[in-house]
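Q: Got a minute? One more chain.
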Amino acid sequence: MKIIHNNILPLPGFGCMNILGLVFSRKPESEISIKTKRHEQTHTYQQYEILMVAAVVSLILCNIYSTWWYLLGVLVIPFIVYVLGFVVEATIPPYHNAKICFEGKTLWGKIKSVPTWLGKVWMDAYCDNAFEREAYMNDDNPDYLATRKLFGWVWYIIPSRARKDA
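A: Always. Here it is, folded:
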């Protein structure tokens, strides 16, 4: 995981943004907490898993239809998975993770006072999608990445209160 300090990415109000192990941060690396680094490392694992699935699906489609255009799926499928998860969370409330997600952060105060319904739904859906839920619920656990199962984020699609095994 490489941390790149800049003032452009992420958008104002967010601390870090992870794209395949490149973490863009508004703070220098020395000011980023271990907890945040663990959180971003979890996102790196998630992104590599989705990229692996996208590559397999794209190669299968290339072989079935005898055209290499389907290799573009490697670039498109990860975004489709993330956006689909986000849309599902935005359209099917209730939200369980929003307070945990922004607890103790200045951004949470701004979000609570968002004047538009859409802005509040957007932030609640962002916090409650499976990728963020897995990262936020395990960023205090120093051993999580060592014990994490492949596609661990899938178990966070259903909130823990609704799971039968919880």
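A: Strands lie at 2-5, 16-19, 22-25.
Q: Perfect, thanks.
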